[in-house]
Amino acid sequence: MGRSRYHVLGTQPHFLTCTVINWIPLFGKVEFTQIILDSLNFLQRQQRLTLYGYVIMENHLHLIASAASLSKEIGNFKSFTARCIIDLLEKNNSNYILNQLELYKLKHKTKQEYQLWQEGFHPQVILDEEMFRQKLDYIHNNPVRCGYVDDPAHWRYSSCRNYMGQIGLLQVDLIDVLEKAEP
Questions:
Q1: Does the pLDDT of residue 182 top 70, yes or no?
Q2: Which tens digits make up the pLDDT trace of 129-167?
C-alpha cells in the first residue's frame, strides 16, 4: 500500500502527475518517451484506463484519466515503465543516468537498485466542466510555458492535436469543452 495522502474518488476523471526522480530529463530521448506512449496505449486497448488528456514533458507527465482502479493502474504503469526504461539504460550502458537513479532512490526502497519515478501521482478529482477545462488548458500549455514551442499544437507528445480535430500520438476520449470556453 502506498504512503500517499492523496485518494482517488471512484471512476471520475482525475488530473494526475508522474515525475521522474530528481526531475531527471529522461523523456528528451524518443525511445523512453515511446515506452510511455506504448504503455498508455496498452492500458487503453485493454480498457483499463480512459485517457481524456495528456502531455509528456522531459521529466514528468500529466494525465487526465479515469479507471475502475486508478491507483492500481497508475502503479502498474509506473512499475512497468520503470522496469523497461531501466532495462534499456542498462543495455545502453547509460551509467551516468543509472547512477543518478541509484543516488536519488529513497532510502527505504531497499529491495531495488534504482528508483525511476517519484512516489505518488497526486490525483485531483475533476469536479466539474470548468475544472476539466482548466486542467486540460494547463496540460496543453505546459510546453509553451517551458519555452519549448510557441503553439501548444506543435508539441507532439500532447493531446492538444486530438482536441483540434487532428491525429495525435494517442487516442483520447474527447470532452467537448472548447466551444463552451467563449461567453
A1: no
A2: 999 999 999 999 999 999 999 999 999 999 999 999 999
Q: Is the pLDDT of residue 179 over 50?
A: no
* 159 and 140 Cβ atoms separated by less than 8 Å: yes
Contact 172, 131 (CB under 8 A): no
Contact 121, 16 (CB under 8 A): yes
From residue 77, give the alpha-carbon distance in Å to each of 19, 27, 84, 130.
Answer: 13, 16, 11, 28
Return the C-alpha cell found at 99: 547512477
The C-alpha cell at 31 is 525511445
Indicate if the pLDDT at residue 121 is higher than 90: yes
Is the model's pLDDT at 111 over the cut of 90?
no
In 25-180, alpha helices (H): 30-45, 70-91, 95-103, 129-145, 160-163
Q: Which grid coordinates belong to 78?
A: 509506473
Question: What CA–CA distance (Å, rounded) separates 112 from 117?
Answer: 13
Give me the residue label for grid cell 466539474: 128
Q: Are 31 and 80 in contact (CB under 8 A)?
A: no
Q: For residue 7, give the C-alpha cell.
A: 485518494
Question: For residues 103 and 31, is the Cβ–Cβ distance under 8 A?
Answer: no
